[in-house]
Model the fold of this input.
Amino acid sequence: MAAADDVVAEHPFVVAHRGASFDRPEHTLAAYDLALQEGADGVECDVRLTSDGHLVCVHDRRVDRTSNGVGLVSEMTLSQLQGFDYGSWHGRPAGPPEALTVPETGLLTLDALVALVLDWQRPVKIFIETKHPVRYGALVERKVLELLDRFGIASPASATRSRAVVMSFSAAAVWRIRRAAPLLPTVLLGSAARYLGGSAATTVGATAIGPSIATLREHPELVDHAAARGRALYCWTVDRDDDVDLCRDLGVAWIATNQPARTKARLRAG
Done:
């Protein structure tokens, strides 16, 4: 991740939260393709393991909210999960009818998302959040690192040049990544200012902290505290104009938003 001073010199970088998830179904190819077209500087995804060991982009433990299926992600195979529709629930069209194909709103694997991002015509970072607690524990981080290694991005020349960032609300998960891949940037996520502003991030070696926008509104000092310790700040989920302005004025490095085009336009206007 870029140093905080470098970011302030321009403006915060915009990360598409689950893709352009206001306009397209979250965690689908349609959502990420739109986010990239809209100029997102990074994309964010949540990953879980299927029962047969595949990393899939799904936020919830269950598929009930975001598909026409029912059940736990961890108890189903990749093939079973691919049988569900992940687009019709959204209420907004996933694209013009003539362009819509099943894969655009089908289950998205992390492999497919990383390939999409790396093949894009400009450098884009991918922020991968590992979900915990899960039945597979540390296996999630191991699988993520194995996948990044296959794509040649698990050991970047430096944190600044890294194409991938791994995040988690679990301090143990962040520590596992830092121990196995010390140059890979990490974000310790949280909603408690005392937790993020304390020693937790130092203990696990996180290169950034990630408060919610609600936490940042109440504790704007987190940005300066992080910078004083050599860390950037990643804020989620920033959609309101006044919150975008706040993040810009405070010097937040990365803004996660469901509306990347609108957020980038707001930053340019400011």
The chain has one domain: 13-268. The beta strands are 13-17, 42-49, 55-57, 125-130, 164-168, 186-190, 208-211, 232-235, 254-257. The longest helix spans residues 139-150.
